[in-house]
Amino acid sequence: MQKCQGAKFAIGVDRLTTRKAAINGFNELLTKELLSISLLQIAPSSRADVDEYQKYKEDVENAINHVNDDHGTDEWRPIHYTNGSFSQAALARLYREAHVGVVTPLQDGMNLAAKEYVAAQESEDPGVLVLSKFAGAAEDFNEDEALLVDPNDPKEIADAISRGGQHAA
Length: 169
Known about the structure:
CATH superfamily: Glycogen Phosphorylase B
Oligomer: single chain
Order of helices and strands: EHEHEHEHEEH
Shape: globular
Distance between the termini: 18 Å
Helix content: 25-40%
């Protein structure tokens, strides 16, 4: 990932409609720990023909721009956002490189991104998963494997990302 300037690296891969909680939590974290971590947010496009989705996409992109404007510098952006797609191999490399995986849906099915993140980790230096307690995958992880959070609480998300970043030293 470019321009992280030595900061830790978190990754979120999920539908755009679940990302606002992670962005709010990340913003909360940056008010306390500026330059400590960067987030790569991958939100593959879906439902592009639905007007409500387009409005939500604009809201999320505005929130990302707000965080970057408030906390970024000329050399560093806290959030790198793309709605492009990645090959499974490229995504696995990104998961492995990330110190923290952030999966914070308000409600969801199984959420395979959480399982893919954990499966991609190196056993000698694994990253830390920050996972919504409302994701179906939350049932499959114990407290040693994931930091479960309430996605409605930006402070709780921020604290978990911070703990995850400190653990993955």
